[in-house]
Amino acid sequence: MLFKDDAVARAEAKAVRENSGWYRWTHDLVTVTGADAEKFLDWMLVNTIAGTPEGRGKYTTMLDEQGTIIDDLMAFNRGGGLWWLSTLYGPHAVRWFDAHKGEYDVAYEDVTQAWDMYAIQGPNSGKVMEALLGESVDALKRFQIVDAHVGEIAVVVDRGGFTGELGYELYCARDDSAAVAEAIADAASKFDAPRLTTLEVYVRSLPMEKGLALRQDYKGLTPYEANLGWSVRLDKDFFGKEALVAKHEEGEKRAFVGVEIERESYEDIAQKEILRKRGVPRGYVTQMIYGYTVDKNIGFAVVDAAKCPLGTRVTIGPNDSPAVIVEPKWC
pTM here? Predict the structure, then answer.
C-alpha cells in the first residue's frame, strides 16, 4: 500500500522520473527453438513474429479460444533460431504451448531459474549503462536486444522497461547476479541513482502513471477492449482469431479505462471492487495506487463501454468512494 506522505516511495518515484533508479526485476523467461519456432510463435501470438529481425523484439498478446487475453509478453529474436519470451507467467506459457503444439517442430523451456534481470530506468539510465558497460548504449533502439559484458561477465541488454521512461533491462546468469548488482550499484552511485526498494513503486505506481498495465488487468479482455488493437495483425492466422474477429465485428461491449478518486485521502481499494454508476454496477477496478508524479489516487478499471464514457462519475467499493472515468494514462 502506498500513501501520499510515504517519503521513501515518493523519493524513489521522483528519482526514476527525473534522474534514474535501478532494481532487480526478474521476468519469467521461456526459450523457443526448433525448425518451426518462428511459425509456431506466429500462430500462437497476435502480432507478426515471422520476419522479426535478429536482435529485435515485439510486444504482443496471446489469446484463448474465446479471443481474450491470457498473457502479454515480449518476443525477442536472439538469432540462430533462438527466441526469448519475456513474460510473468512462464509455466503457464509452457503448459499452453504443450496443449497447442500440434505438428510443429518446436521445443520450449522455462529457463527463469537460470537467469536474473535488473532494470535501470529514467532519463539518466543511458549514462548509468555507459558507466556500467564501458561503452555507449545511445544507438540501442527500443526493443533491441544485444550481448554485452559487465567487466568479464557476459550479460544480455535490451532497451525497454516498465516505467514509461528511457530504460534498459540487463539479464545475467543467476550465479553472476550478486557481482552484477554490485557493479550496477557502483555505476549508479556516480549519478546519485538509488536502488529502488518499494515494489509497489516500480511494479504499480510508476507504470500506471504512464498507462502501462499488467496481464492481471487485461486478462479476459480482447486486445481491442484493452486498447491493444494496434498489436493485432489480421492479415495472418493466429490462435483465437476467429473468435476475436467475431467479437470485434459486434463491437466492443467493455472498455479498459482509467479512474481517479475525487478526494484527497488515500482510498484502500482492492482488486475487483465493484464500480457503480448511480448505484448500478457498471464494471470493476483491476488495481488502484497512489501516483506520486501526478499526486492522485489512480487506477485501472473494466467498464460497460456504452454506459461509462470518459468523464462519467462513478463510485467504487464498499465506501462508495467518488471517482471519475478518464483515459488510462496520466503522464
Answer: 0.95
